[in-house]
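As a representative case, we now present a protein record of this kind.
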Amino acid sequence: MTINDTIKLIAGTFVLLSVTLGYFVNNYFFLFTIFVGINLLQSSITKWCLLEKILKKAGLREGGDSCSIWFFICYQNN
């Protein structure tokens, strides 16, 4: 699993978890959903992500596009 895939997995898990907790436990958990969304926007604009640096130090490999398998399937037939 690449760094990009891991970041998407963690962000998606946090969003689903915080929405579920916000609905069933306390509305303040929706603030965590907003926090994740703001961080995703910030990292797309500035191209800087703290989680990416942490995962690099943890030893995860960098990869190309996370959709590289789809790219390979689409362009293999041409």
Notes: Helices lie at 3-24, 30-46, 50-58, 68-76. Confidence is low (pLDDT under 50) at residues 70-74.
